[in-house]
Amino acid sequence: MRNKRMFMLMIGFILFIAVIGFSLSDRKEMSWPEKFLRDTAAYVQQWFYKPAGYIAGFFEDIANLRTVYEENEQLRLTAAAYSRDKIKYNFIEKENIRLQEELDFTEAQKKMYDYTYLIAQVVSVSNDANNRALTINLGSNNGIKPNMAVTTVDGLIGLISSVTPFTATVTPITELNEESPTFNSIAATILGREDESFGILSSYSKETERLTMTKIAETDKMAVADTVITSGLGNVYPRGLVIGTVESMQVGDFGLTYTASVKLAASFDHLTEVFVVKVPEMEEASQ
């Protein structure tokens, strides 16, 4: 009996709901109690929905901020690595260009004069204003001897003045002075007109930073902008080493010869590497 009553109650409840739904579907408008209940429910829901949306958006923004932070950190690391690699690349590129220039220079000189070039590092520069001597890291154990010429890719630097087993001292041509006890004038000529031009580089002016060439014949065709090189006369400086360019010319003493001002080709600022020139003829003569 009890089960039968329960069954009948469920059937009645289902029919009641069905009748209500059918009756509502036939009406075009809801009654005012139904409208009131719906508006009240919507009003209450918005107070729960908005905070829930804000909270959900807040946590979503935190997640996005973390993602942006991680991406920025990765970008910073990538930018730092790029900057480091770019500096390294630029240094290597400049080093390769410099070494290629030195190789081309030595190969060209070997073809012209059969010279041997020993590359040396400049380890110190004298602080004495009256003697700006250089010290290089090659010495007698490397075959270095006094009066060997020292040059760079750009031009002549000076002469070896003293030697130890592991180092050597270079007197630069900027110390060229007729009054110096170690004075060695430089016999010079003009590139491309070696048999037509001649002069003697006898002194260097620290004020003008120029060499003075004297004893230029009146008939000499030397001109401004000509390249001055060593002539090889005197058996001190080997021939063919670039010294500089003629910057100006003047009438010499008594009007019988000319003098010229020569701008050095080599830069003496921040010298790091130089070449010591070994000349076969000089090597044979010293033996």
Q: According to CATH, what is the class of the largest domain? A: Mainly Beta
Strand/helix succession: HHEEEEEEEEEEEEH
CATH architectural designation of the largest domain:
Beta Barrel
Number of alpha- plus pi-helical segments: 3
Strand content: 25-35%
CATH superfamily of the largest domain: Rod shape-determining protein MreC, domain 2
Overall description:
By secondary structure, this protein is α+β, with helices and mostly antiparallel strands. The chain has 2 domains: 31-113; 114-281, Rod shape-determining protein MreC, domain 2 (Thrombin, subunit H, Beta Barrel), CATH 2.40.10.350. The protein has 3 helices and 12 strands. The strands form 2 sheets. A 6-stranded antiparallel barrel has the order 1-2-5-4-3-12. A 6-stranded antiparallel beta barrel has the order 6-7-8-11-10-9. Strand 6 and strand 7 (199-205) form a beta hairpin. The protein is elongated, with a radius of gyration of 47 Å. The termini are far apart.
